[in-house]
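Severity: low
Component: inverse-folding endpoint
Summary: output formatting inconsistent between runs
Steps to reproduce: submit the following structure tokens with default settings.
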């Protein structure tokens, strides 16, 4: 049950990123710098692995004009990264 929920959330995120990327980024010259993906927990955890897998898939298929950079900001039970 837990794996099904995680897979559905992962699929939803990938679809949102892929669906919105074409229309938003094609209209303007945005972004001009690499895109930072902030992970609110330390490296090596589930959130970090998911973010790195997602960024690898986005870069492999060239869905965005600029590279994605994963930045871990652990601490405060995720509060620092979410802030």
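Observed output (run 2 of 3):
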């Amino acid at each position: 049950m837990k794996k099904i929920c995680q897979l559905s959330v992962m699929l939803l995120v990938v679809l949102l990123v892929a669906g919105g990327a074409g229309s938003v980024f094609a209209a303007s010259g945005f972004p001009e710098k690499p895109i930072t993906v902030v992970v609110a927990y330390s490296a090596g955890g589930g959130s970090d692995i998911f973010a790195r897998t997602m960024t690898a898939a986005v870069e492999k298929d060239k869905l965005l004009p600029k590279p994605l950079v994963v930045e871990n900001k652990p601490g405060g039970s995720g509060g620092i990264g979410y802030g």
